[in-house]
């Protein structure tokens, strides 16, 4: 089989070296004679691995000691409920910044649990943009401010970290975690479903500052309660053991690549290559202003949309898969997470140029 480059938005491709290691260890992990997924999460060999994965993530993101790192179930959407349940006391308001469909979905879910103030920051004009964070209209005594730094569907990424004047900042980093360096201390809470930039689906990472834990609403289910998770090292119930293991293998791989700083340089080069190809052609377009263009999810449209089907069919034939845009926005989308090698983006750009020549 010739090489396939999978541009799926999630679950997304994983590094080849990670998959090969997992395959080698699949039925006999660390000489136990069992697969890691067949072992008790309370066995010392499993718990050592789990702890090491947490330490590697702490190192990769320089997570300060006053933050818990929780390995949870329930995906990004699970956190849409867990965040207000844990962080929004009755009578208080939380601000939700809307920059696309994921931040909107988070706000809609949160409304079940308390007072939510939504702040739409999208600006549509000839080019799509968002309001700079200094102009966001925030509630002064809000319980927290929630935003989505990278909107996976529409490809808007907010790189500046908003100043919230002491109000805890909560970020849905599902599709941008570990893609570039961030200062964790600027956040009250960061969460991310694993299936974009960490590992397989089924695992969700929550990084939460100590003082925000333990104020949950009375009806919070225990598996969504950060305090319960923190007190039990994320093993109050059976964690997604295999996904946790595979995330750990990804963290080791990322360290071998030189860490987040090194992968950020490659991510920048990949995004530059693809946006340049789009901008230089009159055949393809992406109308988001430079400053807010996602480096992880690159949506683009063919000017002649009747060619969409042909484009996707020929791309697939060339080994470039899952390029169909999200149904909400149409067109194409190339998700180029950490695991996508630059060769994949080069192959895509080459294909796009050839397709353009054949269809001018
Ligand atoms: C994929 C995604 C989600 C939803 O994740 P699930 O694990 O499917 O619940 C939420 N937020 C963002 C930004 C995403 O990219």
TrEMBL record:
CC terms in the record's Gene Ontology section: cytoplasm
Compartments in which it is found: Cytoplasm
Gene responsible for this protein: serC
Organism of origin: Litorilituus lipolyticus
CDD domains per record: PSAT_like
UniProt function note: Catalyzes the reversible conversion of 3-phosphohydroxypyruvate to phosphoserine and of 3-hydroxy-2-oxo-4-phosphonooxybutanoate to phosphohydroxythreonine.
InterPro entries listed in its UniProt record: Aminotrans_V_dom, Aminotrans_V_PyrdxlP_BS, Pser_aminoTfrase, PyrdxlP-dep_Trfase, PyrdxlP-dep_Trfase_major, PyrdxlP-dep_Trfase_small
Gene Ontology MF term list: O-phospho-L-serine:2-oxoglutarate aminotransferase activity; pyridoxal phosphate binding
Necessary cofactors: pyridoxal 5'-phosphate
Family: Belongs to the class-V pyridoxal-phosphate-dependent aminotransferase family. SerC subfamily.
Binding site for pyridoxal 5'-phosphate: 76-77, 102, 152, 172, 195, 237-238
Sites bearing N6-(pyridoxal phosphate)lysine, chain numbering: 196
Pathway field: Cofactor biosynthesis; pyridoxine 5'-phosphate biosynthesis; pyridoxine 5'-phosphate from D-erythrose 4-phosphate: step 3/5; Amino-acid biosynthesis; L-serine biosynthesis; L-serine from 3-phospho-D-glycerate: step 2/3
UniProt-recorded name of the protein: Phosphoserine aminotransferase
Summary of subunit composition and partner proteins: Homodimer.
Any single biological process term in GO: L-serine biosynthetic process
